[in-house]
Amino acid sequence: MKLTELMIGDLLEYNGSYTKVLDMVSCGSTYPLSLVNIMNSEDVRLLFERDLKAVKPIAITPEILKANGFVEKETGKGRFTWTDGESAEIEMWKTCGPKWSLEILSKDRTQGMTLLIPCVHEIQHAVRLMGLNDFADNFVIEKGGEQ
Length: 147
Known about the structure:
By secondary structure, this protein is mostly beta strands. It has helices at residues 62-67, 120-129, 133-137; strands spanning 11-14, 17-27, 33-39, 44-48, 55-56, 71-72, 79-83, 88-94, 100-106, 112-117. It has two domains: 3-56, SH3 type barrels; 62-137, no CATH class.
């Protein structure tokens, strides 16, 4: 992964553990220094951009969607919806390969976007663009019963 693909709060995998990006720093173009501060349940680490090879995106699964309040639609197997009841609705469904279609609409249907994404941090980016920062920041991933 590259530093430019990440945002603070993104959920990723690092050395087999789920992590969250806490901070990012990029200094200068003559001597590029990029750091990602990540946290897992064990510790906090600073990674240089060259270390980001060990950072991997987390694939979207139905279990992850359900853990974050998505409900599988009765009318369409494999289609999941989420709403905050006030400002937005999200619908996701599996497409080809590892990718999912994500459609976000404002409640009044005046704003929205449709994306094709394979990874959890891309859900977080999309919902942030629609102003759903709390949803993005509180997204959960569970691995082996741990968060």
